[in-house]
Design brief:
The complex is a heterodimer. Chain A has 8 helices and 6 strands; from the N terminus they run H-E-H-E-H-E-H-H-E-H-H-E-H-E. Chain A is α/β, with parallel strands linked by helices. In chain A, strand 1, helix 2 and strand 2 form a beta-alpha-beta unit. Chain A is globular. The termini of chain A are close together. By secondary structure, chain B is an alpha/beta fold. Chain B has one domain: Thiamin diphosphate (ThDP)-binding fold, Pyr/PP domains (Rossmann fold), CATH 3.40.50.970. Helix content of chain B is about 35%, strand content about 20%. Chain B starts with a strand and ends in a 5-residue tail after the last helix. Classes of the chains: A alpha/beta, B alpha/beta. At the A-B interface, helix 3 of A face helix 2 and helix 5 of B.
Chain lengths: ~160, ~120
């Protein structure tokens, strides 16, 4: 998985202006990098549905936000996602921690979160990719750039 | 502009606003009911201190009004200057009214908002 410095630098290179964030057990390690003065403006929110609302407002105001959240929060944020991505047609970009992805794949976890994550996002008709450990910052830059060029939403699952 | 029912669904936003000061004015119209669903009371109806919640969340400019004349006299001050500010208006519940509809399609509203904000991209 990307480290915090790489992620921050990639988002800066992509022109991202704001990071709307609720940490999970893995992305929490990015705190120092994301809160550094050189990072895009960090907005810590309380709930994932709120993260979509804040990102939507920033997009409407001409900014370029990225959301970072955990997958269980994404599940609860479904109505917010539906409203802003589908009704308001806003191309929101979200990085979503996919907890226990590897353990579940090896049959070592009974956590149902990795079982439902892809199916739920597919049902919500949002394009998604899964970034595994081998994914590099260039991959993220490419996915972000393509989503912006095509003016469409994108979820990037970060396999944990 | 928020109702009390809507505010209750995301009280954490008050903390977000208090932690990320922006030029934002939150006006809560508290009628104590879910008017759109027929008038059922909201949780804690008549007992929740929204001004206290806003202050405790870190918002410094907080106003509360329960009389129209007080609101009329103080509205200019409450809405002046820079945010964040929180305004709690206790209003009378009215039952049996038809729910208002948006004045125009959402795409038009977005276009007009972005135009007003002079957003080009």
């Amino acid at each position: 998985m990307l480290d915090g410095d790489s992620l921050r630098d990639t988002l800066l290179d992509c022109g991202v202006t704001h990071i709307v964030w609720i940490p999970d057990g893995s992305t929490g390690a990015w705190d120092t990098a994301l809160s550094s003065p050189s990072a895009p403006t960090l907005i810590r929110v309380c709930r994932e549905g709120e993260a979509f609302a804040v990102a939507a407002g920033l997009l409407l105001g001409g900014k370029k936000p990225v959301i970072i959240m955990q997958c269980t929060g994404l599940f609860e944020a479904g109505d917010s996602l539906r409203s802003f991505i589908h009704d308001l047609q806003l191309p929101i970009f979200a990085l979503v921690g996919l907890r226990n992805y590897y353990a579940y794949g090896k049959g070592q976890s009974r956590d149902s979160a990795p079982r439902f994550a892809a199916s739920i996002v597919r049902a919500w008709q949002v394009p998604f990719v899964i970034f595994e450990k081998s994914s590099a910052r260039e991959d993220l830059a490419q996915v972000y750039t393509r989503a912006v060029e095509q003016k469409r939403p994108q979820v990037v699952f970060l396999a944990e | 502009m928020n109702g009390d029912g809507s505010m209750l669904m995301n009280l954490g936003t008050l903390v977000t606003i208090g932690s990320n000061p922006a030029n934002l004015f939150v006006v809560v119209l508290d009628n104590g009911i879910y008017e759109i669903t027929g008038g059922q009371p909201t949780a804690g109806s008549g007992r929740v201190d929204y001004a206290g919640l806003a202050r405790a969340a870190g918002i410094e400019r907080v106003y509360a009004f329960d009389a129209p004349t007080d609101w009329r006299n103080a509205a200019a001050e409450a809405l002046a200057g820079s945010g964040p500010a929180f305004i709690w208006l206790k209003v009378e519940a009215r039952f049996g009214q038809k729910a208002p509809q948006p004045p125009r399609p959402m795409a038009d509203q977005i276009r007009r908002l972005r135009q007003a904000l002079q957003v080009k991209n």
